[in-house]
């Protein structure tokens, strides 16, 4: 009876829905990858022996390679999303432009990333891989920049709308609209925080800012946990 209660518990069903999604699995692996990156840096800075650091370095590299394999072909999804945004003529021009830029940035990043899979997995080394990886980081930085611009623009307009509404109003429609608006504002805030964390990764890899593995690892872990939380809510 106890076993049946556990097996058929709603939380178990929710978990199965979550791990059944590629995004869910990727976000979990990403969290472990970047947290391992932070731990490896921390242990090195505290003069721990190489034998203690090695498992976390291996985790970082292995999960990184695994995620690359999981992303093979994903650039098609982003190119299609860019095309859909381009065709959405009724969309706010700024939101539409930034959506196209974001999706194209992610698409070219994924394309370069996919081209480096054989090199990253040591199946076949390529002298072009470092350059492709660098171009991929540039595209990723551009995509995140468009996402941040879109987030700031959306946040500004949502706050302007919020000023015209009062939650204390006796009008039921306004109360419902206020609650809905607050959810949208919170979603934009979470996405902005995630983007700000993520942009440290390509900017650091390109050498545009001086950030050690500790900061990048924590930033990547934070954005990954936000991604896990978001995907968990979607599969509820």
UniProtKB/TrEMBL annotation:
Protein name, per record: Peroxisomal biogenesis factor 11
Residue spans crossing the bilayer: 137-156
Annotated InterPro entries: PEX11 (IPR008733)
Taxonomic source organism: Decorospora gaudefroyi
GO biological process: peroxisome fission
Subcellular location: Peroxisome membrane
Keywords: Membrane, Peroxisome, Peroxisome biogenesis, Transmembrane, Transmembrane helix
GO CC annotation terms, alphabetical: peroxisomal membrane
